[in-house]
Sequence to fold (563 residues):
Amino acid sequence: MAVARPADHPAGGPAASVPAPGAAGRRRSRRSAARRRPRTTPAEAVPPRGGALPLGAGCVNPPIGDDAPAEHVDVLIVGAGLSGIGAACHLRRETPNRTFAILEAREAIGGTWDLFRYPGVRSDSDMQTLGYTFRPWTGAKAIADGDAIREYVRDTAREHGVDGAIRFRHRVVRAEWSSEQALWTVHVLRTGTGDTVRMTCAFLFVCSGYYRYDQGYTPDFPGTGDFTGTIVHPQHWPADLDYAGKRVVVIGSGATAVTLMPSMATTAGHVTMLQRSPSYVLSMPSRDALADRLRRLLPAKAAHPAIKWKNVLLATLSFQLSRRAPRLLKAVLRKGVRKQLPLGYDIDTHFAPRYNPWDQRLCLVPDGDLFKAVSDGRASIVTDRIETFTENGLRLESGVELDADVVVTATGLNLLAIGGMTLAVDGTEIDLAGTVAYKGMMLSGVPNFALALGYTNASWTLKCDLVSQYVCRLLNHMAAHGYRACTPLAPEPSLPLEPLIDLRSGYVRRSAAALPKQGPTAPWRLYQNYPRDILMLRRGPLEDAGVRFSRLPATEPLAQKLP
Fold:
């Protein structure tokens, strides 16, 4: 067996920023400072904007180690992916006088869209809702490929001057809150050198996604050592993998498998998608004809909201229909599949899941590419279980043998909350599984902390944009009222709780016990409803019975004061 390895990523290059100018700079007007374009500098240098002034400002090599004085920023963002860059842009736009820095464990902007490089990688949401509210997507395709999304995120960072605030190869390993100081102390590993540094911040904003970047999930399949072909996981796709003319088996039935099969079928000899059980699939054009028409007829400022809300309402209708009339939505999806496959194709076996729509995410099929690959014989779907790998492929429980030169294990992710860091409040360790999410973005008993967690039934960015806007509102509110800390309180012990993410997908069920919880009603409920969240996060009150604001640092540990 040859296990394909990804090519090494290029070295990380430039990175961090921090704006607070020195005394001479403070004498300059804010207006003239705002006009200056931040420059990209080495990780330890100090650009003019985008973070805080570290100790030894301007030094190429500031102090390193746990004994060194800690650099301070007002807001520390963890992650430079889609949500992290969005958070930084919102801070720059809506709280312009605050200092911030972005810590990114890898060496590039983009998160998911830089990590995944498998054939055909693309969005599974339309770009009008996946794009940022403050920088609408203007590309021709409504369903965009990964390269275009990655460049969109990078261009956004450059245009809004937050790229200089990023410290690449900086992994947050631990954060400790002090009520006495009203500060987080954050321990950071520089992955390129192995050095550790400390930073402090008044607010910690985690935008690190929800899964492990360094390791995808692969079941312990028997017999892999006997297989003489190549096994590869989509999360670690090798740049030099040659599958032209070869027999390929893609194991899985989720969005990645549904994307890979038709893409690889353009050059492979044949591609078989081997699924244990099917998923719901929905075909839609990669270009939105109505959106194109609206762009021609309306000014850009009117066209984008119209297109976005058209897509939001359609997605909301689909989800609500799945909750209220699942049989009807099943019939609609089934009819859409039947129309695109040859007469007599076994839809009941290969496209009829045992669960209701939106119990797991629907898989998007742009321009019907999966159905075309099946219809013209370039690809096929097999629904069965693996008994073992063999020398030449796989043997299934039905006794069928699948020959393969390349096997792709599109078998899912390993969930990882808050980037794997640990949290402590006044010396007490925080068990994430023992916390309850407040408004789907803060955690009970954890002060001055927010988590960017997107929707599971719609575009990720829709929710993350709202979370960033809420954080900016919260910070401005705290400054206006002299508050130093904002802490969601634990709900009543009698409140029934359930996992924060309620999908039935395997990657969620494997890790649900380690996730924060949610309650049955607001503000403890994650409703997965964008219109409702707008009212709560963008327009709703900031002070309610579920949260405590403090003007002065606590004189006793907060962990002891909370009920």
In short: Residues 409 and 471 are 38 Å apart (CA to CA).
